[in-house]
Give the backbone structure.
Amino acid sequence: MKYMLIMHVESAATAEAAAGIEFDDMLEMMGRYNDAMTEAGVFVTAEGLAPGEEGAVLDFAQNPPLVTDGPFAEGHELFNGYWILDTATREEAVQWAAKAPLGPGVKLELRRIHSLSEFDEQLATTDNEYVKTHVLNQKGN
Amino acid sequence: MPKYMLIMRQTDAAIEAQRTADFEQIINAMGAYNTALVNAGVLLDGDGLAPEPGHVVTFGGEFPVVTDGPYGETHELFNGFWTIRVGSAEEAVEWASKAPLGVGQSLEVRRITDETDFADFADNDYIANEPELRERAAGN
């Protein structure tokens, strides 16, 4: 099963905590964590996101959607990065999440990623070409 | 070329509306959009997140505290994402605008950090070995 660990950061608290940690040390801790997950064979992918201030939000309540520059939510609890893990159980994913080198003001949200098998019922009754392409793609990966 | 993440969020009302929607119609709209992204050579990755609330791990104490989800007070939950590689933020927003989404749904567009964001730490072992780590992860 694949799980996504979503990093949420309260800017102020994180900035304070980061002031006490050398960036080089932070890289070292993150590197060790990623290495451990890779060695355990559970690491699928991970990315960090640039600050929300340089991003944009599109609201689909209208067509075409309304584009607003800036972060999704003002000021706090920003979404700053993620890991995707492939583990046998939810507990294993939670255990890996708890080992992340994070501190005050940071939370990890753990969410299961949909797998195609959840849609077996719909897949069995559809002739949909996109579904068939998607199924073939996933089987090829 | 920079990479961007399109982060999907929707309100409770939008989730409720989807329950009564024609599932095949949603598949068709999403399928056409994903195919367009692949044909344009910009799609790198994408996944949907299961609706169950999940868990939240909070750091800062002696040990991380694990609680059953959902995350936060807001009902605008994070439900899925696309990762695309395009030439500019404008191009990323242009692709985001084409997503087959509706009322109560929004996309946040964020640039994914790359080696240029860590240029001052290029000689750090972990930064230097990141391509190798990604290669090993691809084997998982």
